[in-house]
Write a structure and sequence with these properties.
With 297 residues, the chain is an alpha/beta fold. The chain folds into 2 domains: 22-102 and 218-291, Rossmann fold (3-Layer(aba) Sandwich), CATH 3.40.50.1000; 106-215, 2-Layer Sandwich (Hypothetical Protein, Haloacid Dehalogenase-like Hydrolase, Chain: A, domain 2), CATH 3.30.1240. It is 33% helix and 23% strand. The protein has 11 helices and 14 strands. The two termini are 27 Å apart. 44% of the residues are buried.
Length: 297
């Protein structure tokens, strides 16, 4: 029988513009967007990146993942000049050099941590234990207090550099984001617990199980626009791919903005175009179709 990806490829034609646009920058989210169903970078990505590089087109992963994690994932093709938008836009690095960092006030980090500790205590008292954990994201490392294997397995997926500490509010590092993982639905538990911050900070549901807190001046869109300015690239020369709420602002930064099949409804509404699902290699197929590249160039 044909694979699900092969069936999707037949059922989801990609609109090819009459004339390929002058794309200079391709930005893509990772989870639910570029990565396959197993959370891996598809093999087809590597020849595409080589072709983009040959054409002088900048490729940039933009993720809630840690910079060290992204750099490790693309180490085989990074010649020292690749750009990474990490930690949902709070940390941007090019060629190993920090381009921007948006540091959280330590009092806010303490408030978030205390609120989540209280959420866990209150839920335990009511008999409905909230199974959540805080990840304090610094420039050097991510810091956690929980050390059980189910939680650490989730942390390792996104944070290559991580440490277990007694108190995440006391770490000696610039904190750029606080992430909270919920084994249940983060939108229904963690997000309400942090609702008091929404007037002063960015509280974003970045996946089914994750909520990220950052300064209001930090998001993937701000990072993309800053990169465009640095490189002299316009929104009309930019392609962006995303699937979840932490991708909304960066979709606004590109004329060629794509929501993946199966994306969050708000993302589907915000993006100008559609791409096949991440399980059907949608980013690679769309870039090739729009730029007029052969299937295996």
């Amino acid at each position: 029988m044909p694979s699900d990806a092969a069936a999707a490829a037949r059922q989801e034609p990609i609109t090819r513009p009459a004339t390929p646009p002058d794309i200079r920058l391709v930005v893509t989210d990772m989870d639910g967007t570029l990565l396959d169903a197993d959370g891996r970078i598809p093999d087809e990505v590597w020849p595409l990146l080589a072709e983009l590089n040959r054409r002088g087109i900048v490729f940039c992963p933009a993720s809630g993942r840690q910079y060290a994690t992204l750099a490790e994932q693309f180490a085989a093709v990074d010649d020292g000049g690749m750009v990474y938008i990490a930690e949902n836009g709070t940390y941007v690095v090019r060629g190993g050099t920090e381009l921007s960092a948006n540091v959280l006030d330590r009092a806010v980090v303490a408030w978030i941590t205390t609120s989540i500790r209280q959420l866990v205590a209150d839920s335990a008292a009511s008999g409905e234990r909230a199974d959540v954990g805080v990840v304090v994201c610094g420039k050097q490392s991510a810091y956690v207090e929980r050390s059980d294997e189910p939680f650490m397995a989730e942390v390792r997926k996104y944070y290559r550099n991580h440490r277990v500490v007694d108190d995440v509010t006391a770490v000696d590092d610039d904190v750029i984001k606080v992430a909270v993982f919920d084994f249940g639905r983060a939108e229904h538990t963690v997000a309400p617990a942090l609702a008091a911050l929404t007037g002063t900070h960015k509280v974003v549901v970045s996946g089914e199980h994750w909520v990220d807190v950052m300064n209001t001046t930090a998001n993937k869109g701000v990072a993309v626009r800053g990169l465009q300015r640095d490189l002299g690239i316009t929104p009309a020369q930019t392609m962006v791919f995303g699937d979840y709420l932490n991708d909304l602002e960066m979709l606004d930064a590109a004329d060629w903005s794509y929501a993946m099949e199966g994306a969050h409804p708000e993302v589907l509404e915000r993006a100008r175009h559609r791409a096949p699902a991440h399980t059907a290699n949608g980013v690679v197929r769309t870039v090739r179709a729009v730029l007029g590249l052969p299937a295996h160039a």
